[in-house]
């Protein structure tokens, strides 16, 4: 690559985000680790550098508008453009709480990160993505956000009735669709991805998939060519129903 391809990964200091950084870094991309904690971001960067990956930390709290603005301004000053945005930061608070017992505060706090955070970062970074010859946005969603699968008693997701988290991922899919429509006449492509039930801190490492498996699906969408899809929802097996 003559001109460095720059990737920003929110929540990139651990889990699927970090493994995505590692895989893309080994493909020659320059990685910006978005992390709330500068210390944890630096730890991730230090590890990536042991694999000769070019990486830097960007202090970024997706729920804090001033933090988002500062991060975008730094990227603009440092590079002037961005090639790939991976909206990976996410939270899961409710456990197995039934919808009728869910606290409103939990619903709001879930949406602050999982939905409003995705919107805030995407909106703020778009001008820099438009300066790329082939901007890409990948939104980390979940099969739990599929209304079709949530309504299907034969689906593996049917019995996970977590209103806050599941509906937040449904909303992420809506963001994907509406931004894709707005950007349809540009080179930018935006898609949602279901990484599968992956062992991460989010679920107490109870998932049956590895971060390596999960990140490969993210990387595939982040690096699609110019005639690839946009405004769609995928997992490793193909299209996931809305």
Write up what this structure looks like.
This protein has an eight-stranded mixed β-sheet, sandwiched between helices. By secondary structure, the protein is α/β, with parallel strands linked by helices. It has helices at about 15-25, 40-50, 65-80, 105-130, 145-150, 165-180, 210-220; strands at about 5-10, 30-35, 55-60, 85, 135-140, 190-195, 235, 240. The mean pLDDT is about 95. The protein contains seven helices and eight strands. It starts with 5 loop residues before the first strand and ends with a strand.
Strand order of the largest sheet: 3-2-1-4-5-6-7-8
Q: Which percent band covers the strand fraction?
A: 5-15%
| Fraction of residues in helix | 40-55%
Question: What is the radius of gyration?
Answer: 17 Å
Mean pLDDT across the residues is: 93
Number of helices: 7
The largest sheet is: 8 strands, mixed
The total count of strands amounts to 8
Low-confidence stretches: none
Shape: globular
Q: Termini separation (Å)? A: 36 Å
Q: Which structural class should the secondary elements be placed in?
A: alpha/beta
Sketch the topology as an H/E string, one letter per element.
Answer: EHEHEHEHEHHEHEE
Compact summary:
It contains seven helices and eight strands; from the N terminus they run E-H-E-H-E-H-E-H-E-H-H-E-H-E-E. With 242 residues, the protein is an alpha/beta fold. The protein is globular.
């Amino acid at each position: 690559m003559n001109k460095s391809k720059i990737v920003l990964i929110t929540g990139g200091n651990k889990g699927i985000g970090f493994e995505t950084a590692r895989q893309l870094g080994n493909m020659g991309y320059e990685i910006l680790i978005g992390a709330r904690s500068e210390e944890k971001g630096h730890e991730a960067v230090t590890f990536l550098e042991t694999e000769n990956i070019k990486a830097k930390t960007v202090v970024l709290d997706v729920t804090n508008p001033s933090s988002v603005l500062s991060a975008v301004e730094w990227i603009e000053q440092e590079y002037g453009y961005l090639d790939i945005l991976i909206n990976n930061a996410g939270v899961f608070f409710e456990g197995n709480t039934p919808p009728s017992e869910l606290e409103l505060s939990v619903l709001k706090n879930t949406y602050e990160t999982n939905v409003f955070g995705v919107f805030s970062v995407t909106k703020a970074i778009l001008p820099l993505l438009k300066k790329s010859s082939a901007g890409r946005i990948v939104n980390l969603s979940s099969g739990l956000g599929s209304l079709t699968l949530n309504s299907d008693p034969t689906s593996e997701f049917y019995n996970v009735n977590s209103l806050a988290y599941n509906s937040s991922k449904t909303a992420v899919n809506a963001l994907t669709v509406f931004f894709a429509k707005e950007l349809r006449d540009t080179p930018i492509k935006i898609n949602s991805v279901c990484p599968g039930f992956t062992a991460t801190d989010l679920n107490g490492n109870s998932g049956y998939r590895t971060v390596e498996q999960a990140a490969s699906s993210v990387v595939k969408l982040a690096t699609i060519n110019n005639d690839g899809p946009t405004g769609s929802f995928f997992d490793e097996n193909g299209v996931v129903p809305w």
